[in-house]
Amino acid sequence: MSEHEHSHTEDRSISATQDGQFAPGVELLSRALKTIFVILAAVIILILLWFLTCGGSFIVDSTKEEVIVLRFGKFIEGSVYKSGWHWFLPYPVNKVVRIPIIKQEVVSRSFMASNVNKLYNPNDASQDMVAGDSLTPGKDGYTLLGDNSIMHSDWKMTYRVTDSRQYFLNCMSRETAVGGTDGPDSETVNLKTSSIMLKNLLDDAVITVSAGLDVQKTYFDKASYESLVRRQLEKNIEKANLGVTLESLNMLLVAPPIKSFDAFQMLVLSSAEREAVLEQARKFAVEQQNQALADRSKIQSDAEAYKKRVVSAVRADVEYFEEIRKQFRQNPDAAFVSLYYGILANSMISVKDKFVIGAPAGFQNQTLWLKLNPESDVKRPPKKDENNPAGEE
């Protein structure tokens, strides 16, 4: 046997010896690898099933939000969901964008001076050193009125998203709108950072309205000024088609520049005194008007009463004369005697003792009547009742 063949035989014997020695470990390792492979395959299958079933599902809270689904980053028509459970293929095919529909606020201080505290507290002496005598461009904001006056104002608007599609397409700024993410396939819109356009529309409304007004209609008629700005802002929002509805607009402050604040205060005081005098004049005018109406009513009622009395008296006289005329037609002499004695009795009714002496010519006989026991003017006390001697009723 050659040396080469002897070496080859020796290597096969050593290999057989090693295979017999490590066979249990190799078999155990093989089983472990198979088990791990099965587990990994099961996990992959479960992940795939979750990906295809629950991975793209979402629930919409109808009281707080609306959901828009983007497919490959683009908006899909009809993909606005307001309530319920929905499922789509998850990211990167589809992406869920949650848009809050609760009330949000936008505050604009574009027309305020840099020293805001001085405008809100003009009597604070600690702010005098901070406040300057002039406005600095780019630092201090202001509104230029129609009469070339300068006015500061602070505004706050409250709005609500009512059309998520229009809001997403026309109002949102993708660079600043995302407020939070729930993974690569879902994000929530931050309305505070996506309302830059609304703030610009508010500033535009303030500038547009202020350009046509003066100090009297802005500083002294705040309610009308605020109402005009609200109408203009509603027009701007409707024209821009932003998908939001304006809930309220409040003018937090309107004030002149700090340097002219004292002069405005004096004007306010004089206006208050003027209004007080005018109010007193209005009150006096109302009192006089009411008194005149009362006097007129009294005069009219007295005239009506007098008219009724005169008419009643005239009617009574008419009836009396008609009766006398009727008597004269029937018997003139008897009527004349009756009238004569009636008038004579009325004229002498106040005389206590009456004596009629003398007779007309042509009468031969004369008669004298005397009343010897005239009645006394003293009233007699009432007779006492025997059953009631005390006179009690």
Strand order, biggest sheet? 3-2-5-10-9
What is the H level of CATH, i.e. the homologous superfamily of the domain at 102-116 and 137-256? Band 7 domain
Oligomer: single chain
Fold-level CATH name of the domain at 102-116 and 137-256: Tetrahydropterin Synthase, Chain A
The proportion of residues forming helix, as a percent range, comes to: 40-55%
**Can you write the helix and strand succession as a string?**
HEEEEEEHEEHEEHHHEHH
Structural class: alpha+beta
Q: Characterize the biggest β-sheet.
A: 5 strands, mixed
Taking all residues together, what is the mean pLDDT?
Answer: 76
Q: Alpha-carbon distance between the termini?
A: 177 Å
Radius of gyration: 57 Å
CATH architecture of the domain at 102-116 and 137-256: 2-Layer Sandwich
- Number of helices, counting only DSSP H or I runs of 4 residues or more: 8
User: Count the strands?
Assistant: 11
CATH class of the domain at 102-116 and 137-256: Alpha Beta
Give the overall shape.
elongated
